Amino acid sequence: MRKLYRNARLQDVDALQDILVEDGKFAGIAPHIETEGAEVIDLAGRLTLPPYVEPHIHLDCVYTGLQDGAANRSMTLFEGIKNWSTVKATVSVGEMKERAKRAIREEMSHGVQFIRTHVDVTNPKQTSLKALLELREELKDLVTIQIVAFPQEGIYSFPNGAALLEEALRMGADCVGAIPHYELAREFGEKSLHKVVELAQKYDKLIDAHCDETDDDQSRFLELLTALTYQAGIGDRTTASHTCSFGSANGAYAFRLMKTLVKAKLSFVSCPTENISLEGRQDSYPKRRGLTRVKELHDAGINVCFAQDSIADPWYPLGNGNLMNILDHGIHICQMMSFAEIDHAFDLITVNSARALHILDQYGIEEGKPANFIVLDADSPFEAIRQRADVLRSVHGGEELFVREPARIETDIPLLRADASSTTDKNYKIITDKA
Ligand code: FE2
Q1: 290 vs 76: CA distance, rounded Å
Q2: Which end of the chain has less Cβ packing within 10 Å, N or C?
Q3: What is the spatial distance between Cα 308 and Cα 319, in angstroms, rounded to a whole number?
Q4: pLDDT tens digits, 290-348
Q5: Distance, CA 312 to ligand 1 centroid (Å)?
Q6: Does residue 421 register a pLDDT over 50?
Q7: Tally of CB atoms within 10 A around 34
Q8: How far is residue 183 from each of residues 27, 86, 151, 173, 314, measured CA to CA in Å?
Q9: Would you list the DSSP string of 185-249?
Q10: 3 state SS of 362
Q11: DSSP 48
Q12: Contact criterion met (CB below 8 Å) for 382 and 339
């Protein structure tokens, strides 16, 4: 099967490009391709990107926020964990799979093709892990799912936590997780990170630790995670998720730690909608934003990306898997709002997330790689973000996952007939940072 996509607007490329797809791979990318016998699809100058990547979500918890015992009244992280503990006692593998599938469907319908999900392994029945292992296999031709063995109630604060975590890795989880700031004592938190690094090496797994998801500027587990993984030579196989307390750290401490972060090459995941809601709850005013130093990490050349984290679960009531929404919130909250920053902001939900997932060898619009891409209803990255453009087409392994008609309004008023999302503006210009 051969398809020729004409007039694609690629990021950071001046001229429109034709894209030839053959046997599920990118077979040619050039300003003009002549070929016989291929189905031709005109993209009309629309922005064409590698797929969105969801680097951090909890698919075992989605849509449970309104179940008995789940409603979070304080809207804090800790009440969410307590309420989820009640909910998870009664869920079945089948019920969990149906909820997770609904969330995957929502994410995919917005252009996501790769998902890293945390699954709670502080459960002797391993219900979450079993459900997501089955889905990872059942859906593998449509979406890549990475599973983090996540000790939601602690490695040393939950009975047999360390053994359950190790069991999850033997069962097939892709990454080792942690939650050091939730452990009963700082010493337990430190011990938990030593355990995570030990297990990652023993089973050759990636690391993705929930780390310092608190406003407490004395929660400094990121420092230890960085040091341990750097010394073990696995810094670039490690992701630190949330790291909210780093946003509250004093300047001198942050300056020192930043130097180690650059050397260690960790990836960072920030969850803008989740943490702007959960954090700052113990503050009066001024009230902190609760996010890590996304802009400063990014400007230092450290890999950082944005994630959804939750969909209607005990921690967060909203969420629909649309990473454009997350990106829009993220660049506002983190003040990444110069024209140049906006023009390159898609990296925060595409290639940076792919780097965190360690899938770059298969990711990107390049000849020879799997033909995975999305097409947005806009003619430039800047316009796509300004308009929160929809994903009109998602192609995975050369197959169309979906095609969406652009939103249009009916009107007799001439003023309103001007189409705000028109792709007729050919004044495409790559914005560079003049600052
Ligand atoms: Fe999370």
Answers
A1: 12
A2: C
A3: 7
A4: 999 999 999 999 999 999 999 999 999 999 999 999 999 999 999 999 999 999 999 99
A5: 13
A6: no
A7: 9
A8: 51, 19, 10, 22, 19
A9: SHHHHHHHHHHHHHHHHHHT-EEEEEE--SS-TT--HHHHHHHHHHHTT-GGGEEEEE-GGGGTS
A10: helix
A11: E
A12: yes
Report yes or no: 389 and 423 within 8 Å, Cβ to Cβ: no
Question: Catalytic residue numbers?
Answer: 213
User: How far away, in angstroms, is 112 Cα from ligand 1 center?
Assistant: 18
Token representation of residue 139: 């859906």
Mean pLDDT throughout 252-262? 96
Residue 334, token pair as written in the block: 């983190």
Centre of ligand 1 to C-alpha 326, Å, is 14
Centroid of ligand 1 to alpha carbon of 309 (angstroms): 5
> How many whole angstroms separate alpha carbon 40 and alpha carbon 18?
10
pLDDT at residue 60 is higher than 90: yes
Tokens of 22: 């053959």
CA dist., res. 321 & res. 273, Å (int): 12
61: left (phi over 0), alpha (psi -120 to 50) or beta: alpha
- Amino acid 433: pLDDT: 63
DSSP state of 89: T
CA of 114 to the centre of ligand 1 (A): 17
Tens digits of per-residue pLDDT, 11-21?
Answer: 999 999 999 99
Closest Cα to residue 233, out of 212, 208, 204?
204
What pLDDT, on the 0 to 100 scale, is given for residue 420? 45
List, for residues 18-42, the tens digit of each pLDDT value: 999 999 999 999 999 999 999 999 9
- The owner of tokens 């983090």 is 148
pLDDT digits (tens, 9 = 90+) for 100-121: 999 999 999 999 999 999 999 9
427 pLDDT exceeds 60?
no
What is the CA(361)–ligand 1 centre distance, in A?
Answer: 26
CA nearest neighbour of 15 among 3, 30, 35, 25 = 30
DSSP string, 21-37: EETTEEEEEES----SS
Tokens (6 digits) for 426:
């050919």
Instruction: Pick the closest to residue 205 from 270, 147, 262 (CA basis).
Output: 147
Q: Give the integer Cα–Cα distance in Å for 207 and 194.
A: 12
Kindly give the pairing relationship between strand 39-42 and strand 47-49. Answer: unpaired
Which candidate, 182, 328, 152, places its Cα nearest to that of 244?
A: 182
